[in-house]
Amino acid sequence: MTDANDGVLHTLFRSDQGGHEQVVLCQDRATGLKAVIALHSTALGPALGGTRFYPYASDEEAVADALNLARGMSYKNAMAGLDHGGGKAVIIGDPQRDKTEELLLAYGRAVASLGGRYVTACDVGTYVADMDVVARECRWTTGRSPENGGAGDSSVLTAFGVFQGMRASARHLWGEPSLRGRTVGVAGVGKVGHHLVEHLLEDGAEVVITDVRQDAVARITERHPSVRAVADTEKLIRLEGLDVYAPCALGGALNDDTVPVLTARAVCGAANNQLAHPGVEKDLADRGILYAPDYVVNAGGVIQVADELHGFDFERCRAKAAKIFDTTLSIFARANEDGIPPAAAADRIAEQRMADAIAAGAGR
Prior knowledge:
Its EC number is 1.4.1.23. Its main location: cytoplasm. By secondary structure, the chain is of the alpha/beta class. It has helices at 6-12, 59-79, 95-98, 101-112, 128-134, 155-174, 193-202, 214-223, 233-237, 280-286, 294-297, 300-308, 314-322, 324-338, 342-362; strands spanning 22-28, 33-41, 47-48, 51-54, 85-92, 118-119, 183-187, 206-210, 228-229, 244-247, 266-267, 290-291.
């Protein structure tokens, strides 16, 4: 495994991507591994964040994604009250074609070389079985199977946390913490999205879904005939009568094209980095659309994998994830008090916690 030298890194970074503590470019020729590990902050503790396996178009795109995701994890972990900083790793390649046991073992050695500064877990393109393999070379691995001492699939509590954030959004907008009678559009019904649909149906919501994978759509509609499906996200966001839009696939769902035509009163979903660029949060606020910050409401999964490091207890984690309801309400209140969008309010709270941790460390 090799760290990229400063000259190589300089060609991959933009001037607005600074502030990270450490970025490691990893390569193992024997297995074909190419990966980026980004540590944004360890102010609150070891950086914690998942591993994304994705066929990036370029190394620059992979680095940019790792940096953005790592920063998001710092804020997510801070808002979740965890004693962890933020980090993220991306493996460059098609997981359907390039993922092998040998590659995952090589990746585990790369993470282990950081000596515990980074704790990894699952993300897009990686699964519990993959973390079991990585853990054979790296003890700083979570999201493992119960058979191997882990907590298993974290998507269950991720969806539960998003549902709590959605309940808080409903309370803020309509006075009742329920989605009963509301129409919720879920874009992406994969690992997390299909669990979210179950919560919404149990709560009495009308659910409309879309996904690029038709088998994922069919799994929902065959089990729940009341769920409607539309062809794509473009149709979903323009749907008349839509109350809540839940982006649950990849990031950048809220951008200059989607925000102007979005019909929903609120956005609350599981996807990371939903805001395509700074300023989108203001565009949402200007249109009267309530945005529940993604890294706040989707923190159920990281709450679970963090707990795994101390001996996993599902009910303890579920109780912590349930607090996402109160945290989301407190962000809406802070936003109103400061006259800023909820995303900015969440950032201020998270940044203050990290700053307090740094100050406390300096004072010891």
